[in-house]
Amino acid sequence: MTLLAQNVINVTDTAFLGRVGEVELGASAIGGVFFIAIFMVCFGFSMGSQILIGRRNGEKNYLEIGKIFNNGILFSFLLAVIIFIFSQSLISPILGAIVKSENIYTASVEYLSWRSFGFFFLFANVMFRALFVGITQTKVLSVSALITAVVNIFFDYVLIFGKFGLPAMGIKGAAIASVIAEGATTIYLILYTLNKVNRQKYGLFSFRKIDFEIIKKTLDISVYIMFQYFISVSTWFLFFIFIERTGERPLAVSNIVRSLYAILIIPASALGTTTSTMISNLIGEDRSAEVLRFLKKVITINAVISIPFVLFTLAFPELCINIYTTDVDLIAATVPVVRVVSFSILVFGTGLLLFNSVSATGNTRIAFIFELVVLFFYILYTYLTTIILNSPIEIVWIAEYVYWGLIAAVSFVYLKYGNWRKIKI
Asked: What angle (nearest 5°) sits at the alpha carbon of residue 380, between those of residues 375 and 383?
């Protein structure tokens, strides 16, 4: 439910901008993935915090959870300040050097110059997410995501199209709406934690001084996840840059597919987050022998849930695409890509669950190495199909099978034969 509500933002932005123009639709793909790539630095840190919180929760060492969370919030804020300054200073020259279309470049810079204000709220939100997922109290996240979605939809409509006497801002309006929605979510999470959570039990907001030892321990776990996520999404950004060089239409098609793909993988993504926490808790309870059996069950559950999504998308691709655009030519160009991507969600789910399990064992270094090796083949395939062979866009998107298939393979081998049971964190 949390991921579904969060993806309403992605769908709404793409659907509204698809009715503004193909340039705005394409630019939101470039700007959106660039933003996510930078945001993943802090998200990786929060995942490391989540693994530690899950482990301490399994050990019933509850006061240590508050120390991890309190220092994580402070570290995340300092990281947000640094990244915000970096973004405001370097967005224009970086995009100017790699984006071919002047129209796409201008719109992307306009989007990111406003969107980067959201770092301050998002970085806090992911630390709250790490806390509540780590202690297995996730209902609050559904409510917070619903708040994000509702606020974003309202302000998207008002600011993009210019309602209630406000000027039509287009892509800039989409960025501002997202920032407002994330700010509203931060306020809700703070108020909920203050009023509904046993702060004495977990030692939340009991902060006297910076505990560098805890920050170091969290970074020991999360630093490889931070690099891993950043490099992974940066490579996805490169994927869209390669597509942008083939034309504005393929980029617009790819942004529609990106948004639809994000919806299709919601079950697998939710199970991936849950699996990571459950495995961390199992290991903390000294039940490592149950991990592989648990993982097999979750992979089966994911397949059962995902197959109806695959069949529906294959049967009614035009209906799905109509959410984003009514342009007949754009719909026709998107249908083949949607059909290719539909099957990939099964491979995605298996790969994600296995890969998240590798990180949950605490060996984030090996997960980072796996990511680097697989991304090499992913980039190579994308470069060959776009720049060298100039292949149809549906052939380019087969890269999803390359990436997640390889991730699944190397993760399975490690979980089956690796020495992860001996790792202490």
From this structure: 120
The total number of structural domains that make up the chain: 1
Q: What is the pLDDT of residue 81?
A: 93
What is the spatial distance between Cα 76 and Cα 70, in angstroms, rounded to a whole number? Answer: 10
On whether the CB atoms of residues 155 and 300 are closer than 8 A, the answer is no
Collapse the DSSP code of 322 into the 3-class scheme (helix H, G, I; strand E, B; otherwise coil) and give the result.
coil
Q: Which of 215-229, 266-280, 342-356 has the highest mean pLDDT?
A: 342-356
Kindly state the DSSP code that residue 422 receives in the 8-state scheme.
G
- pLDDT of 333-368, one tens digit each? 999 999 999 989 899 999 999 998 887 777 778 888
Collapsing DSSP to helix, strand or coil, 206 comes out as coil
C-alpha to C-alpha distances, 384 to 2, 6, 381, 388, nearest whole angstrom: 37, 34, 5, 5
- Residue 274: give the domain boundaries: 2-422
Sort 361 into a burial class: Cβ within 10 Å, 0-12 / 13-18 / 19+. Answer: buried
The C-alpha angle with vertex 358 and arms to 352 and 359, in degrees rounded to 5, equals 90
Which tokens in the block code for residue 46?
A: 């929060």
Q: What is the pTM of this model?
A: 0.76
